[in-house]
Amino acid sequence: MNSALSTGRTVLTLSVVICAYTLDRWEDLRAAIGSVLVQDPPADEVVLVVDHNQALLERAERELSGVHVVPNQRRRGLSGGRNTGVSVSRTDVVAFLDDDATAEPGWTGRLLAPYRDPRVVGVGGFVRPWWATARPVWFPPEFDWVVGCSYRGQPRQAAPVRNFIGANMSFRRSELLAVGGFLDALGRVGSRPAASCDETDLCLRLAARDPEAVLLYEPAAEIRHRVPESRTSWSYFRNRCYIEGLSKALVARRCGRGPALANERVYVRSTISRALARNVSRIRRPGALRTIGALSGGVCATVTGYLVGSIRPLGSPALSRRRRGVATPTTTAPS
Fold first, then answer.
1. Is residue 98 within 8 Å of residue 32, measured between CB atoms?
2. In angstroms, rounded to a whole number, what is the distance separating the alpha carbons of residues 68 and 59?
3. Residue 69: closest CA among 45, 41, 95
4. Taking a C-beta distance cutoff of 8 angstroms, is the pair 50, 70 a contact?
5. Which CATH architecture has domain 5-231?
6. What's the mean pLDDT in 91-104?
7. Pair 235, 151: CB distance under 8 Å
8. What is the pTM for the complete model shown?
9. Digit-coded pLDDT (tens) for 200-217
């Protein structure tokens, strides 16, 4: 296969990396791979990285065709899997698709097209939530990042951004290698809402390496991301917000508070403020009061996580303790 997108000087080749860790999402995984294999232009390579699950590895090797199946050769978790995918790929551009997501027609072409500009080092796309059950009435679209999806407040047209949603992103492979890939300590491990912000950390390092580099958000490059019922509860929402804050504190200490928090300041001042005002003006409508509670509670949980992460000494086992089940602060569910 050859994606054969020409820049006038060279032809860009594309690998799509999908990381998987469980047999429980086998049908989702097959759908994800199938959505990539029918893309036009086709990817030059589809890499499935299996995260330390021998049964899944053997089944994938036995039943999946048109896919390069490899075990995670790095630390257990999503970041280690992504780094493995980068290391085994041999193309100009590496794209990442979650194992419970499906790419819409034309996805590869829309991701590749902006790379005609040599300043572009990464391109990310729109992630549409695909709710397994009905969307909770209280769940604000400004917080769709909680379930790994694009959220209200992001650009509606192609624009440079600080970082991408991890379910739908791509980078020049040479740039990934130059900055050392993803930080293993920040990657999700299995289904647990553990450390996050690995994409933010990576994008900040890419920008620091070359201030002229462009990370382009192209909403026309769309995928659908499944949201299981288990991620629609208030407890998941609260915990995921807390972990976002905890992880963002680590990124801020690694990359500097200015770059790490610039988007978050705008998000709270503008996006969240408008959402609160809108729901207050509709207070009599069903769900408005609960949405206000979710907006406020989500911000509080995120800020609490950030403060906790900020006061712990660097190198402390904060994230590992959280993975073992340290309780997050209790906040009241929207009611």
1. yes
2. 13
3. 45
4. yes
5. Alpha-Beta Complex (3.90)
6. 98
7. no
8. 0.88
9. 999 999 999 999 999 999
